[in-house]
Design brief:
Helices cover 37% and strands 18% of the residues. It is of the alpha/beta class. It has two domains: 165 residues, Ribosomal Protein S5, domain 2 (2-Layer Sandwich), CATH 3.30.230; 310 residues, Rossmann fold (3-Layer(aba) Sandwich), CATH 3.40.50. The strands form seven sheets. Strands 13-16-19-11-20 form a five-stranded parallel sheet.
Amino acid sequence: MVARAYTVAFEGVEAHQVEVQCAVAPGLPAFSIVGLPDKAVSEARDRVRSALTSLAIALPSKRITINLSPADLPKEGSHFDLPIAFALLAALDIIPKDAAESVVSLGELSLDGSLVPVTGALPAAMSAAREDRSLLCPHASGPEAAWVGAAQVIAARTLADVIRHFTGQNPLAPSQPGEILGATSDKDLRDVKGQERAKRALEIAAAGRHHLMMLGTPGSGKSMLAARLATILPDLTAIEALETSTIHSIAGLLKEGGISRRRPFREPHHTASMAAIVGGGRRASPGEISLAHNGVLFMDEFPEFTRAVLETLRQPMETGEVMVARANAHVSYPCRFMLIAAANPCKCGYMYDPSKACARVPQCGEDYLDRISGPLLDRMDLRIEVPPVGFHDLDLPASGETSATIAKRVATARDIQQNRFQNHPTARVNADAQGQVLEEIARPDAEGRTLLNRVAERFSLTARGYHRVLRVARTIADLDGSADLRRHHIAEAISYRQSGSDS
C-alpha cells in the first residue's frame, strides 16, 4: 500500500506540484529517498527519523521508500522534510490517507519535531489553490501564505500539532494574512537644493517608469535625488504587490509574513557579480533586477560595474523578463524595473572644473564613459546633467515642491495609464507601449511630428530612440493632463534624450 502526500518544487517563481509517495514493505530495514533529490532532500531522512523519535513514534523494521514524482524534476531545499514525514505518517496509518492527499505541505523539521519556516510559502499557496488543496506549513510562514486567500492555510508549530490536527484531537485555526507593511521615510525632494531640471526628470521617470541616467560631478546630489525617488512613486497595485512578493518570497525577503505596498528600491554595489545582478548561482536564484520588479534599480557609479554586468541589462530592459540559463536549470524571472543610473563625467570626476580636473581632460572622460556601450545608452529614456550646487544656494532655506505634491501628479498620471492600458495585458505604463499600441497612444500633432522628424534626422536617432522619445512625450502629456501630444511635449522629451549625449 502506497501513501501519498503533495508538495512543490520551485523553478523560478513557478511552484510545480510534486507527489510524495511512501511505501513500507517487508525487507531489510532501510530508509531511502529517490526522485532526483539534492543533498538537503537526501538528509531529510535523518531529520524525519529524529523528529518521529521525539514523538515516541518508532519506525518499523521494514524497507521504507520515498519517491518524489515526477522523478526527472530536480528537488532542492529543506522544505521537503514535512511532506516526507506527512506521507510516512499516512503510510503508518497514524493520520488518514485521504487527509494527506488533500493537502500541499512544505516545511523544515528540526530534530525535536518543531517546524522551521522556509522560503516560497506564497507561491506554494498559489499552487495549492490551483489544485484545490489546502496548504500545510510552519507557523511562521502562515501569514505570508494566507495572502493568497484562495487556499486554506494551516500553520503548525510542531509535527505533534500536525498529527493532532489531522486526527481531530486539536484542530488548528486557519492562518490569517500578515499585516500590510507601511514605509515611513524622512526624505523629501524639497531637501534637495536647486536641481529643478533633475527633479522634473525624476517626476517624468516615476510617472511612466522610464529609465534615467544622471551625469554629474561628485557631490552634486545624484545619490540624494535617487534616494528620494521612492517618495514620489505610487503604491503597488494588488496584482503588482502579489507579483513582487512572490519573488521576494522565493528569495526569503518577506518579513513576518507581511506584504508591502511600497515599491522595492534596490541599490547594488558596483562590485556585484553578474549572478547577483541578473540572477543565478547553484539554484538559479533571482537577481537584483528581479528583486526590483515593479520598483527601482539604482546603480550608482554606473561605469564602475563590469562590462559583462552592464551588457546583461540590455535585454531585460527591453523585455521585462530575464532567462537565467545554467547547466542544470533554465529559469525565467520577471524584471520590469526602472533603472536609475548615476555616473561621474570622468574617472577623477571633475572634468568640467578646470581647477580640479586631471591632465588627461577630455580624453579621460571619453575613456571613462566608453565603458557604457552605445546600445545600452540608447535604452536610457532620459539623460540629464546634474551640475554642482553653489555654496550660496546651500545656505538658502528649503524651497520648491514637496514629495507629496509631486507624488499626487505622478499618481494621477499613473491612473490615466491604468485606464488607457486596461485592455492591453502586456502594457501597464507608457514605457511598456510598443508597436500598434504605441502608435495609438502617442500620435503627435503636425508640428510635433515635424519637429521629431527633423531632430531624428539631424541627430541620427535609432528606431528605438525615436520610439522612446514618443513614450516620454506621452508621459509628459499625461502629467500635463493633455489627451493630445503637442509640440512642446515632444520638445521636452527630445531635450532629455539629447542631454549629456555629447559628454
